[in-house]
Design goal:
disordered N terminus; seven-stranded antiparallel β-sheet; 27 helices; alpha/beta; 702 residues
Length: 702
């Protein structure tokens, strides 16, 4: 049973929605819903690529619960799921409410059920069927019931009214929405407001005002203006001449009346318009006015029942700053004491809104599944949320609206990848792929966004299959660097017990104190190996040089290759996840630019470096330098040395990595036909090609 609590502690809210055969969401195996969406108590933003089903989720809620404004939402044949077998003839939507107070439980008592925590829950269910027979033709039958499955029955009027939502439709033409007319949206909004509700036998004050106005107008038209004539009198004369003469003895006389509008509240509201000052008439301003009118219904202050607001495409026709102010205002309403019981469910295409919303309030819709990004459902830790709140800006928020994402660590990859994808006929924009430049190697935090928690998987919910490619450098300097720059790479290690004995002999310790767990471990400084030994050794500074000689490793090409192999294995293991579709693609050597210098694109890279390095790259002397460089590269006598020499001005920041990448990208696009196969077959570039393929092809295609 629900424990007692204050309204601030316990607030009826929409916990979950399940959808079968509604629009793009069909039905899964074993009669499972096509999509199941879990909501947080306060603020929810539904995001995802185009046609992911964001609006369908919002519409499913308001079709089931209805709206406070005087709308009559209808289900049409287009709302039924259709596949290769044809259109389904039935659909079902379930809205599950949780955290009822005792008072609310009393109102909904007949329809309540209990969850596995023995707490009250309310299930509201819409079922629609397409009926088609010779007697009635094609017709859609809709029923809304509440209660446990197979024990539900129709909701009565008052409980049904209490569940209604405030619904702000997608903005298409705010000016017309605020104009008078038979289907006036403004009239629908106002009719839902408490200021326009009256008892059956009462007259609304607006009706009294219009009646008085109509009487004064009628009196005006009955006033004589010349020759003792009146407008009404003249019209009556002509009117009676037009009609057939009445039978003898009949007193029928046709009396016209002038009035502004019928003095009935609905008619009055349909004649109203809402405008801004003449000097403020832009489309964005009118849209804000329309939103302000819609939010009239939000502050109606229900004493019981959910205060649920649905907003579709909130950003339409609003510039980013207006979007930001609006979303911050709505979030602030939930912080305010008077609005603390509200719940917002909003759909958006706006990266601005996605970036300004806390990650735990986001629901990502992908591949007919909905993935809440809160703590319980991802692998993110508290500090990860704090980090992402600081750095998940509008650019990075692109990852929520893509069909695939490539995470890169710098500008060079960000500029070069789209060109490479074009050359191999995988243009990223056509595949809906976003590149997110993190500007660092903090991939793990971003990757964890797409990894589901153990609890999520235990509940039998699907992993997030959005393909993510992480492209990073191996960051192990090649041996040629130490050779040419005459640098030393100090690595200290005790490889075997014989070497360990020598170390212990140096400090005259007993064999039974040998710390064998240190064998094979590598340390980058002498201090680190001393720290690792300090539990067993009394290190004396005057023996440091002897210790250095005993433990310093010899570095060669083979050792560097082992370092690269070890680094790759660690990175792959670190990012491996069974609950996501993340793959990491690592440069085979050092960095992207060094790999390019080794690859079949080395001549193109040389040209890009040349044009980035010199103010007058096409001067005679500079062109001679370039020609000489190309000749050296063509000889291929010492590929590794030539690669390092080509890469050196980039590494030493003589030229900008970003400018070189931009120049190289331009060069590649001008000769894409002749280099396509070369790039695809190049072992050095394979990691980039595979990263592109991972996010641009259906699973199992390759």
């Amino acid at each position: 049973m629900l424990e007692s609590g204050t309204k601030e502690d316990i607030t009826l809210y929409l916990k979950k929605i399940k959808i079968w055969n509604f629009r793009k969401f069909g039905e899964k195996e074993d009669n499972k819903p096509g999509v199941e969406v879990e909501f947080s108590k306060k603020f929810n933003i539904i995001i995802g690529e185009n046609d992911a089903g964001k609006s369908s989720i919002i519409d499913a809620i308001y079709l089931t619960l209805g709206t406070i404004s005087a709308e009559n939402p209808r289900i049409t044949e287009k709302d039924f799921y259709s596949d290769s077998d044809g259109i389904k003839d039935n659909l079902k939507i379930e809205c599950i409410f949780s955290d009822l107070t005792e008072e609310e439980a009393g109102v909904f008592l007949e329809w309540l059920s209990f969850n596995n925590m023995n707490e009250y829950e309310l299930e509201v269910r819409l079922i629609a069927k397409i009926l088609d027979n010779d007697y009635i033709g094609k017709k859609i039958e809709k029923n809304i019931k509440a209660g446990p499955l197979d024990a539900d029955f129709v909701l009565e009027r008052i409980p049904k009214e209490l569940l209604k939502t405030t619904y702000l439709k997608p903005l298409r033409d705010a000016e017309n929405e605020l104009r008078p007319g038979f289907k006036s949206r403004l009239a629908q909004i106002l009719r839902g407001h408490s200021a326009f509700r009256v008892d059956k036998n009462e007259t609304h004050v607006l009706e009294e005002i219009v009646s008085e106005t109509n009487q004064k107008i009628e009196d005006f038209f009955k006033t004589t203006y010349k020759d003792e004539k009146t407008i009404i009198g003249e019209i009556s004369f002509y009117l009676n001449e037009f009609f057939n003469k009445s039978r003898q003895g009949s007193t029928n006389v046709y009396q016209p009346r002038f009035q502004v509008t019928p003095a009935k509240l609905n008619d009055i509201l349909k004649k109203l318009s809402l405008d801004l000052d003449d000097n403020v008439s832009g489309l964005g301003s009118l849209n804000l006015l329309f939103i302000a009118a819609e939010l009239l219904l939000l502050n109606e202050g229900k004493k019981i029942g959910p205060s649920l607001t649905l907003i579709e495409e909130i950003e339409a026709h609003l510039h980013p700053q207006a979007q930001l102010r609006l979303i911050k205002f709505l979030q602030g309403m939930l912080e305010d004491e008077s609005g603390s019981n509200g719940q917002f469910i909003i759909s958006t295409h706006s990266t601005t809104l996605a970036a300004s919303t806390p990650l735990e309030n986001i629901i990502l819709v992908h591949n007919n599944n909905a993935y809440p990004m809160n703590f319980e459902n991802t692998e993110l830790e508290k500090e990860d949320y704090e980090f992402l709140e600081r750095f998940l800006d509008t650019t990075k928020a692109n990852l929520f609206f893509a069909r695939g994402v490539i995470l890169v660590e710098g500008d060079a990859e960000n500029l070069l990848l789209p060109a490479l994808a074009e050359v191999i006929d995988r243009p990223l924009h056509k595949y809906g792929v976003s590149i997110v430049n993190l500007g660092n190697t903090a991939f793990k935090r971003y990757a964890k966004i797409f990894s589901r928690s153990e609890e999520w998987i235990k509940r039998g919910l699907p992993p997030l299959e959005l393909p993510i490619s992480i492209i990073t450098d191996v960051d192990v300097k090649p041996y040629i660097y130490y050779e040419i720059e005459e640098k030393e790479l100090d690595i200290y290690s005790i490889e075997n017990e014989e070497q360990l004995h020598k170390v212990f002999d140096l400090y005259k310790l007993k064999d039974d104190e040998l710390p064998t767990d240190i064998l094979g471990k590598e340390f980058s400084t002498l201090k680190k190996i001393k720290d690792a030994l300090e539990d067993s050794l009394l290190i004396c500074d005057n023996k440091d040089e002897l210790l250095r000689e005993l433990t310093l490793k010899k570095i060669d090409d083979y050792y560097i290759s082992m370092l690269e192999k070890d680094k790759k294995e660690k990175l792959e293991s670190y990012y491996k996840s069974e609950t996501s579709n993340i793959e990491i693609f690592i440069a085979p050597h050092w960095t992207l630019e060094y790999v390019l210098a080794l690859s079949s694109l080395k001549k193109e890279l040389a040209v890009a470096v040349h044009y980035s390095r010199y103010k007058n790259p096409e001067s005679k002397s500079n062109m001679t330098k370039l020609e000489t460089k190309i000749i050296e590269l063509n000889k291929e006598e010492n590929i590794v040395k030539d690669a390092y020499t080509l890469f050196k001005p980039i590494n030493e920041k003589v030229v900008s990595k970003a400018i070189v990448a931009q120049q190289l990208a331009k060069n590649l696009l001008t000769k894409s036909d002749e280099i396509k196969e070369t790039i695809e077959d190049d072992p050095y570039l394979r990691y980039l090609v595979n990263a592109i393929y991972h996010v641009t092809e259906p699973k199992g295609e390759r």
